[in-house]
């Protein structure tokens, strides 16, 4: 590594506070100074390359550094970078809204922009809340969420997230919500087995709505995969069973597809695995392929019209973020979404998903299988849950820091990993090739084996 790079790393340790990072670990580690990224590979200043097997926190859907996306950004930057979005509009944001409405559920007809996943969810929460106020159903103020769900790091979204490790310290700041069990079949909250359970985990929702629906504004969920909660893949039929219950009541359904939207699960949107009709759809991350911070919250004509009235009636939605409708981000997002649809990437990706499926038995052949309690797969997401005892499903003591040590081991095998507790996963772009999958699987399994040998056996 040259002198300039070393100097940047020193300055980084001196001035920067990194997210989700114990800075004491960081200070004594050797962080990668990223110089370049292309496709699924990241290159650092020390001359090493890595597979970005987590799509840079679930953003890259097409891989890094896509020329058509870069071109869209350059084209717009020569025109203008940002103008406030209240009282003005711009072509990229308008065209993107039209495109998003055309590819999402027919119930969704309006687009509200913001700039990250948490704000996309906040918009949905506030709009749902105010909808009921505008409709004079003043008691409808509460939200339902799922255990192990994750919706962001703002106070509002944390109030609805079920990931204890991240949120417990802030609990006193949260507003009161209702939570229901997650369809976490490996650790079934009802102690039953799928499918004979007949979705017993939905019984609490049924009971809750039967008694409290008059005070419920909405239910929020990540459809098909609880990401930060541990890459928990929902069992087939769960969303429809949930919808059957929710449909009986007058409440909104907010779908948080910030992490799974745009093909990650094998469908353009994860709700397509069901007949569920969303009232809100929250999108970010892959929306711009990670190129720009951006987000969109889609909603229905019914919701929109509850805010549409004479000014004096006081129904305006007083919500906005500085970068709402940013033309650079909109132009980028439009090129990403157009690339996915015009190239029919979701359809083409089905073969690759089958290929990923065919590789799963490699886990069983690995020496690390002794500690693999569960293997989960949907679309481009593959996860293994590591346990100390496969019978009791008891996890290893977190003080052993297997998670962090395995991340370090991964670096030795050209992998950038981001384990979630005892869950190790792949979160691949839909453009990944068979050859890359072969390499990634062998490196991923080797990393688990080596880390197990060195740290646990
Ligand atoms: C499902 C889901 N919702 C919301 C968020 C929050 O997004 P952001 O980190 O951009 O605020 C995330 C982030 O990982 C997410 O996975």
What do you see in this structure?
The protein has helices at residues 3-15, 23-28, 55-58, 67-77, 91-103, 117-134, 155-159, 164-167, 203-212, 238-246, 301-305, 327-342, 345-359, 361-365, 402-412, 434-455; strands spanning 34-38, 41-44, 49-52, 108-114, 142-146, 178-180, 216-221, 225-226, 232-233, 252-256, 280-283, 295-300, 372-378, 381-386, 415-416, 423-427. The chain has 457 residues and is an alpha/beta fold. Strands 4-12-11-10-7-5-6 form a seven-stranded mixed β-sheet, with helices on both faces. Strands 1-2-3-15 form a four-stranded mixed β-sheet. The protein has two domains: 32-65 and 345-455, Aspartate Aminotransferase, domain 1 (Alpha-Beta Complex), CATH 3.90.1150; 68-342, Aspartate Aminotransferase, domain 2, CATH 3.40.640.10.
Question: Any key phrases for this structure?
Answer:
457 residues, alpha/beta, Aspartate Aminotransferase, domain 1, Aspartate Aminotransferase, domain 2, 2 domains, seven-stranded mixed sheet
């Amino acid at each position: 590594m040259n002198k300039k790079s070393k100097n940047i790393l020193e300055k980084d340790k001196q001035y920067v506070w990194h997210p989700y990072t114990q800075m004491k670990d960081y200070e004594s580690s050797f962080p990668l100074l990223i110089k370049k990224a292309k496709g699924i590979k990241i290159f650092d200043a020390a001359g090493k390359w890595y597979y970005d097997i987590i799509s840079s926190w679930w953003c890259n859907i097409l891989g890094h550094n896509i020329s058509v996306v870069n071109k869209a950004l350059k084209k717009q930057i020569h025109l203008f970078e940002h103008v406030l979005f209240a009282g003005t509009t711009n072509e990229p944001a308008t065209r993107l809204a039209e495109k998003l409405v055309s590819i999402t559920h027919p119930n969704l007809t309006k687009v509200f922009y913001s700039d990250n996943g948490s704000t996309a969810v906040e918009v949905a929460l506030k709009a749902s809340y105010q909808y009921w106020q505008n409709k004079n159903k003043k008691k409808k103020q509460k939200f339902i969420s799922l255990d192990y769900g994750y919706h962001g790091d703002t106070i509002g979204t944390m109030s609805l997230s079920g990931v204890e490790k991240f949120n417990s310290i802030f609990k006193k700041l949260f507003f009161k919500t209702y939570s229901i069990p997650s369809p976490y079949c490996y650790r079934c909250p009802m102690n039953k087995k799928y499918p004979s359970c007949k979705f017993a985990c939905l019984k609490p929702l049924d009971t809750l709505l039967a008694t409290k629906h008059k005070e419920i504004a909405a239910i929020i969920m990540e459809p098909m995969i609880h990401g930060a909660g541990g890459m928990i893949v929902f069992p087939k039929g769960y969303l429809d069973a949930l919808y059957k219950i929710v449909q009986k009541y007058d409440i909104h359904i907010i779908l948080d597809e910030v992490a799974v939207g745009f093909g990650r699960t094998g469908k353009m949107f994860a709700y397509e695995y069901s007949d569920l009709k969303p009232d809100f759809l929250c999108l970010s991350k892959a929306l711009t392929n990670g190129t720009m911070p951006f987000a969109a919250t889609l909603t229905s004509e019914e919701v929109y019209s509850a805010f549409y009235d004479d000014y004096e009636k006081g129904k305006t939605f007083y919500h906005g973020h500085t970068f709402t409708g940013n033309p650079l981000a909109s132009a980028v997002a439009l090129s990403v979404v157009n690339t996915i649809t015009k190239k029919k990437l979701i359809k083409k990706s089905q073969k690759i998903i089958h290929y990923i499926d065919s590789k799963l038995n490699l886990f069983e052949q690995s020496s690390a299988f002794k500690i693999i309690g569960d293997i989960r797969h949907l679309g481009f997401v593959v996860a293994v849950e590591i346990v100390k005892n496969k019978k009791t499903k008891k996890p290893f003591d977190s003080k052993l820091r297997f998670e962090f040590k395995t991340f370090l081991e991964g670096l030795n095998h050209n992998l950038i990993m981001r384990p979630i507790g005892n869950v190790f996963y792949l979160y691949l772009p839909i453009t990944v090739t068979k050859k890359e999958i072969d390499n990634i699987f062998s490196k991923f399994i080797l990393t688990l084996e080596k880390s197990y040998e060195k740290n646990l056996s």
